[in-house]
Design a protein that fits this description.
Blueprint (H helix, E strand, L loop, with lengths): L16 H17 L3 H27 L4 H24 L3 H5 L2 H14 L13 H7 L2 H6 L7 H28 L9 H12 L11 H27 L4 E2 L9 E2 L21
Antiparallel strand pairs: 1-2
Main location: membrane
Keywords: Ion channel, Ion transport, Membrane, Potassium, Potassium channel, Potassium transport, Transmembrane, Transmembrane helix, Transport
Protein name: Potassium channel family protein
Length: about 280
């Protein structure tokens, strides 16, 4: 009596979905965190796109009058931002840890204003916070700033980003809040003029905000503006330091001609690129 032959086993798929997902995450991690020339070029392209998007955010109050064209560009940028945020999340080792970062929440809020431009248009001025998060991000300085051992370049850039971001965020807030309800602020340029005049404490007085809340806002702009100006001046004129982690205590910033770590006293050897 002949036995029936067993049915052939189904072949396992050569590329199971889980393996494909792992490979995708590995590629994204390589591009977003790698040090190869290809990864650096990819991150440079992302940074260029980021600056182009920030330029659109700056011009948004004026371009909003373009109607349909504005909304088409708005949703195209939303699509790009969705892809970028998804790729960053997948490239991160722990997505939960990535979601805890304040910069991530800023980007998610910016995305919300892009997805609902009519409903959240009055909060559109907060999109400029993306400039601050970009220039303070490890992503930016790992790509651009690795060329600079002089930490003053990084500090001046961050201080300038804080000042510029503050100016345009306040300008957007003044424009969204007081436009058409205050005779002196009929356009975006008027709001920018008021912000700069108040921030520098010039006080021409031709545009002043009404009521107690207007005075409170003016005081906040003046005090914060002076603080940011002093911070920028300090980073420009103070003695610069170089980035060179101490092998013993971990102190990362030292004077360019330092021989010993001022924290623990151990001998350090800072490379002299000019030699």
């Amino acid at each position: 009596m002949s036995r029936a032959k067993p049915a052939p086993k189904a072949e396992a798929p050569t590329n199971p979905p889980k393996a494909e997902g792992l490979r995708l995450r590995a590629r994204l991690r390589y591009l977003y965190h790698g040090t190869s020339p290809l990864a650096v070029k990819f991150r440079l392209a992302v940074i260029v796109i980021d600056f182009a998007i920030i330029g659109f955010f700056l011009a948004a109050p004026i371009l909003h009058e373009a109607g349909l064209v504005f909304y088409v560009v708005d949703y195209l940028i939303a699509t790009v931002l969705v892809l970028d945020l998804t790729a960053r999340a997948l490239a991160h080792t722990d997505i939960k840890d990535w979601l805890k970062k304040p910069a991530t929440w800023v980007d998610l809020f910016v995305l919300a204003t892009l997805l609902f431009p009519t409903l959240l248009f009055n909060f559109g001025f907060l999109r400029l916070l993306r400039l601050w998060t970009l220039l303070h991000s490890e992503f930016f300085w790992r790509t651009i700033g690795h060329k600079y051992d002089d930490t003053r370049v990084e500090e001046v850039t961050k201080a300038s980003a804080s000042l510029v971001t503050f100016v345009f965020v306040v300008t957007g807030f003044v424009y969204a809040t007081f436009r058409d309800s205050h005779p002196g602020i009929s356009g975006y340029l008027d709001a920018l003029y008021f912000t700069v005049a108040t921030l520098t404490t010039t006080g021409f007085g031709d545009i002043t905000l009404p009521g107690n809340w207007g005075r409170v806002l003016s005081i906040v702009v003046m005090l914060t503006g002076i603080t940011l100006f002093l911070r920028l001046a300090q980073t420009i004129f103070k003695p610069h330091k170089v980035f060179h982690p101490c092998p013993t205590c971990g102190l990362q910033k030292h004077d360019p001609d330092a021989v010993h770590c001022k924290a623990c006293g151990v001998v350090i050897c800072i490379p002299d690129d000019g030699a």
